[in-house]
Amino acid sequence: MIKKILVANRGEIAIRVIRTCREMGITAVAVFSEADRNSMHVRFADEAYLIGPASSNESYLVIENIIQAAKKSKADAIHPGYGFLSENAEFAERCEKEGIVFIGPSAYAINTMGDKITARKNMMAANVPVVPGTVEPIKDIKEAVETIKKIGLPVMVKASAGGGGKGMRLINDEKEIVAGVSAAKSEAKAAFGNDAVYIEKYINSPHHIEFQILADKHGHCIHLFERECSVQRRHQKVVEETPSPIMTPSVRAEMGKHAVSAAKAVDYSSAGTIEFIVDDDLNYYFLEMNTRLQVEHPITERVVGVDLVKEQIKIANGEPLSYKQEDLKQNGHAIEVRIYAEDPDNNFMPSPGKVKHITEPLGLGVRHDGYIYEGYEIPMHYDPMISKLIVWAPSRDEAIDRMKRALFAYKITGIKTTISFLSRIMNVPAFREGKYNTHFIQDNQKYLEPEKNASQKIRDVVSIAAFIDYLADIDSRKPANGNSVQQQSNWKICGRRKSMNRL
């Protein structure tokens, strides 16, 4: 029985896992780099251990350091969260060798589904629809040219290993083939140490829809319905929602069955996600499997009513699934947005620095998974995502309105964030209508660009506020005989003059 879990991660996901540990009466152990000494997840855990310098290559990605921390703390199990070592088969194997429970799938499942070419072969064998394309790595440019001519343009060149949009190139014209394939191979080699790429037919107007699955070690597997993840920037998800606005009951049932078949094909256990690419006619094809907990898992938890981390821990304990497929249903609508420490008005440049003030959104149907606090210095060494904002409401329209309200209430100063950009997304007609695909951001630039006169409006508001403050101060200090009062603050006088010039 698992009594102590080391969380091999940082930030909001570490806090998220620790919360469930606390509910289950399990001791939670945090690990941290030198840059994360003051991180909230370190304060939140029952115990915490330093695992190395700021760079993730010297701390969070060093298997030996994580294992030694687990041994020192006498942890029974390790939860990897997402990112870092969460989909590292070597790490899963090492945990098993050391007698530490890895809260995730087997190394075999990670390896099989982590390599996209191998995954495609397994899905074809399991009769799961896959996008037309190659089933072996492309050897050279000549083969690439011949293959693309057979498949037909446009095509997508993809790295066999890894993910996150790296090693991907869309090719629309024959003139782009040599440069596109070369660039994809080079990027894949740099990012994953493996330059193997394959080619898929590109689906026009693609929708990115994924199915959450849970599988135990007794052969049982269920799906927890879909998430719509088509609002993306540079192949990275920005907004997710469930249910998908384009889904029908019959297609949902079919895709759910194929998602379960995909998981069973590799003897999967734990939480995982089967990703599909879907066209406007609701034809769908297997894209890849994420053999871990997803960033966007909270919207599924809210709509289906299942704590996915708790289920992961139970499965790792050897327990059978707590639910049967017929027990599950979708209730209402949930939306998640990812808050990044980036400047959306300056090409999304990273914005590390000290948080001067934060006001978290509250109220009915609002969940905030974050880790920053006033005075916290956001390090430059890691992913710039600082929190996730999740809302739930009985209907999609109400959920969008609730998200707009929550984003309006979410205030952070000292750094730049993407809050304003996300607010603009909520107002785009295509999003409101649920008629969007993975081209959403590039197709709606006119709605997503900041107001050109926004800075002027801010100056006007500041001036008006200063003038009102000035008048209120005058009124509160005016003697009964009406005589003049002493000289006011130069700041207020300046504000008054600017306000009078504008009003």
Account of the protein in words:
This protein is of the alpha+beta class and 503 residues long. The chain has 4 domains: 4-103, Rossmann fold (3-Layer(aba) Sandwich), CATH 3.40.50.20; 132-201, ATP-grasp fold, A domain (Dna Ligase, domain 1), CATH 3.30.1490; 207-448, 2-Layer Sandwich (D-amino Acid Aminotransferase, Chain A, domain 1), CATH 3.30.470.20; 454-502, no CATH class. 37% of the residues lie in helices and 23% in strands. The protein is built from 18 helices and 22 strands. It has helices at residues 11-23, 40-44, 63-73, 89-97, 107-114, 116-125, 141-151, 177-192, 249-264, 297-304, 308-316, 396-409, 419-427, 429-432, 440-443, 445-448, 454-477, 490-502; strands spanning 4-7, 27-33, 47-52, 77-79, 101-102, 155-159, 168-171, 197-201, 207-215, 221-233, 236-242, 270-278, 284-290, 333-340, 342-343, 349-350, 353-354, 357-359, 366-370, 377-378, 385-393, 411-413. An 8-stranded antiparallel β-sheet has the order 13-12-9-10-11-14-21-19, with helices on both faces. Strands 3-2-1-4-5 form a 5-stranded parallel β-sheet. Strands 7-6-8 form a 3-stranded antiparallel β-sheet, with helices on one face. α4 (89-97) packs antiparallel against α5, α7 crosses α8 and α12 (396-409) packs antiparallel against α13. The longest helix is centred in the C-terminal third of the chain and has 24 residues, at 454-477. The protein is globular and about 80 Å long. Residues 484-503 have low confidence and may be disordered.
